Amino acid sequence: MKGGDSMNTLFVGIDVSTKNNQVCAVNFNQDVFFNLSFPNNPDGCDLLITTVLAFVDKEKFDSIIIVTESTSIYDYHICAYLSSQLSIVGTSVVIYSVNAKSIANYKKSYIEMEKTDPGDAFLIADFARVGRCKKLRPFKAAQHIALKRLTRERYHLAEQLSREKNYILNNIYLKVSGLMTLPHKDLPFSDNFSASNTKFLTDYASPFDLAERPLDEIIEYFKSASKNRCDDYGKIASLFDKAIRSSYRLDKTAYDPITISITASINLIQCIESQIKMVDKAIEKEMRGLYPNGYQSLMSITGIGPVFAAGILSEIGDISYFKSDASLAKYAGFHWKKNDSGNFTSDEKHSANSCNKYLKYYITQATQMSVMHGFDYTTPFYRKKYNEASTHKHRRALVLTSRKLVRLIYVLLRDNKLYVSVSHDTVIE
């Protein structure tokens, strides 16, 4: 057991709230030494440390295991403070920040227990007492907290961007249904958010106002909108005319409100995209000097750039915490629960919910980019799994390929090596 013999260990459970921390300390025999509330500030933490160390001296404990329930960022300060202050004492101290779902599942074994702060603190301490922390990663003083906040902010912005783009498609369909229903080869714009399309959607309340103009004017309009970057504006004008003719006409009173909604969404999308670029630059700047070896290892993988490398490294931390690529894959959410009974084996297997969603996002995005760039380790495997799948072809192939990429990431980080060979298993220092 990490932290020493469990019989000589003091188990401390902390139920964190914004104002106060309810703290319970027990020994292996489940004797409660105290269950008290401390202010959630440095002075309160100093009092907590004094109280804990007093019982350590009195009862002659060899080690301390402290467990908090992970509540977004709210347990970070107390974990970091305790980690720094207790690192200088002679007693072995290990701190864990435990997923709230794990604590909730453990609480189910106490059927009659009521929901109270002292009760929750006791459960958290008892969670450690029964050995539930053995396979968990201890909390480390987060010297890389700045990088993690940046990479998680980027994830947050990417979610917002995706949500806003999905939302605006409804309004685009209402305004110009042909842009959403025609085959891709018959569309005038490369995508719904190209410069030409967004300018057209916001400049004209009704799409027919532009379509009814002379062909030369339409061509000149799109030349100006795209800053003369296209080759065949005659074809674009022809496809634009086809898209408009295949669209439904709305009542004139509907166009202005829909155009205002589209304009607001486009402005928001452009704002989010600019913020993502700003965060990306900050991530690249923050990465300098951090994880130098791991950074170079991940950058040797085709499709992984500075941002994805930073996101993966900030969530993994020390690769030595993971005993195998399987444990890393489980932490990242690329682990599927069995759904078998007797001779029946289900094809539909759901991934575990209790995973690091940020790490899963960055690995999935890195996998997709590596496949798009023809990376020899992932692309053939993706195509094989895509062809094998009967349903959800892309999604199935992508998650299976992501699981394969996890194996490569684990080996490169563990062995401090670069990927340089077309052979799927050959790496070099």
SSE topology:
Layout: E1 9-16, E2 20-26, E3 32-39, H1 42-59, E4 63-70, H2 76-86, E5 92-99, H3 100-107, H4 117-129, H5 145-175, H6 178-181, H7 195-203, H8 207-211, H9 215-225, H10 233-245, H11 252-287, H12 292-299, H13 306-316, H14 325-332, E6 340-341, E7 344-345, H15 357-372, H16 379-388, H17 393-415, E8 418-419, E9 427-428
Parallel strand pairs: 1-4, 4-5
Antiparallel strand pairs: 1-2, 2-3, 6-7, 8-9
Describe this structure in words.
Residues 340-346 have low confidence and may be disordered. Helix 9 (215-225) packs across helix 10 (233-245), helix 14 (325-332) packs across helix 17 (393-415) and helix 16 (379-388) runs antiparallel to helix 17. Helices cover 55% and strands 11% of the residues. The chain is α/β, with parallel strands linked by helices and 429 residues long.
State the gist of this model:
The protein is α/β, with parallel strands linked by helices and 429 residues long. It contains 17 helices and 9 strands.
Q: Give the tally of β-strands.
A: 9
**What's the order of the H and E elements?**
EEEHEHEHHHHHHHHHHHHEEHHHEE
The overall pLDDT average reads 88
- 3D shape: elongated
Low-confidence stretches: 340-346
Q: Structural class given helices, strands, pairing?
A: alpha/beta
Entry keywords:
429 residues; 17 helices; 9 strands
